[in-house]
Amino acid sequence: MAKRVRIYFATDVHGSEKCFRKFLNGGRVYQPDVMILGGDVAGKAIQSIQRAPGGRYVFSFRGVRYDLEEGEELERVEQLIADHGYYPRRSDPGELDALEREGALDALFLEMMRDRLARWMELADERLRPLGRPVYWMLGNDDPTELQPVLDRAPWGEASEGHIAHIDGHEVVSLGYSNITPFKSHRELTEDQIRDRLTELAGRLDDPSSAVFNVHVPPFDSGLDEAPVVDESLQVQASIGQVRFQPVGSTAVREVLEQVQPLVGLHGHIHESAGFRKLGRTLAVNPGSDYNMGALNGAIVTLDRDKVKSHQLVRG
Fold it and tell me: pLDDT tens digits for 33-50?
């Protein structure tokens, strides 16, 4: 029988060291029964830190020009870069350009993503195992599939995608892929493929009415999926000086949620559309993301058997 369970959910940390540490701290601060980190765990770019004469390093980051010698100040800025989700790399002039020409830059980037994610899993083991705090991990659409083995080998927690997890009688369905985007990200599916995967998972549920759907992409036209309009060159479009927005969520996710009517849908993907919406009896949530500011958005959802007892957005 399903019991009362308190879920702490966050998503879209995109490689931010600060946001991931805040997520782990949430295990102590919010005292959840279970923690779920939604998709998009990896960062998006390498930040070159170029060696210069005299043992110095010269580079620009977020509009600030740095000229630093090796030491504590350089390490502090490297941590700042990592906290914003980038991967600092000390390199000789032209080194990264040469790797790109040789077709080897992607391999380096993947190695850096793997290394950071593996360190995160070790840190989660250190922080959450003593608390006995269950946690579920999942890749998102922006995460290379090659990162999946890192989650599979995590010493603490469970890689949840593609199977049914159980938390105090509530079943959890997880899917980290998105529908097709203009950005051609790593893990995208057609609406038919998303529908098929979610329908197959839902068919394995013992009690769909008490289930949790941890699905990275939000339901279409739900108010949780409003994103800036971009043109073919991926430039954001504006009208009368205001950015234009449009719904970009998944029609298949909406269809399955409306048919299955689980208790909760946990979503992310669209950073600008934080909030809660009801789709029939299903409470859908997107906490949004401000990872590039070092702020972690999340949601606390308390389930009481066959209903949502309470829900709130949190930020740290």
Answer: 999 999 999 999 999 999
- Domains of the chain, CATH where assigned: 4-43+110-315 (3.60.21.10), 46-105 (no CATH)
User: Could you write out the DSSP letters of every residue in the chain?
Assistant: ---EEEEEEE---TT-HHHHHHHHHHHHHS--SEEEE-S--S-S-EEEEEEEGGGEEEEEETTEEEEEETTHHHHHHHHHHHHTT-EEEEE-TTHHHHHHHTT-HHHHHHHHHHHHHHHHHHHHHHHHTTTT--EEE---TTS-GGGHHHHHT-SSSEE-TTSEEEETTEEEEEE--B---TT--SSB--HHHHHHHHHHHHTT-S-GGG-EEEESSPBTTSSS-EEE-B-TT-PBPEETTEE-EEE-SBHHHHHHHHHH--SEEE--S-TT--EEEEETTEEEEE---BGGGTB-EEEEEEEETTEEEEEEEEE-
Residue-wise pLDDT for 48-88, tens only, equals: 999 999 889 999 999 999 999 999 999 999 999 999 999 99
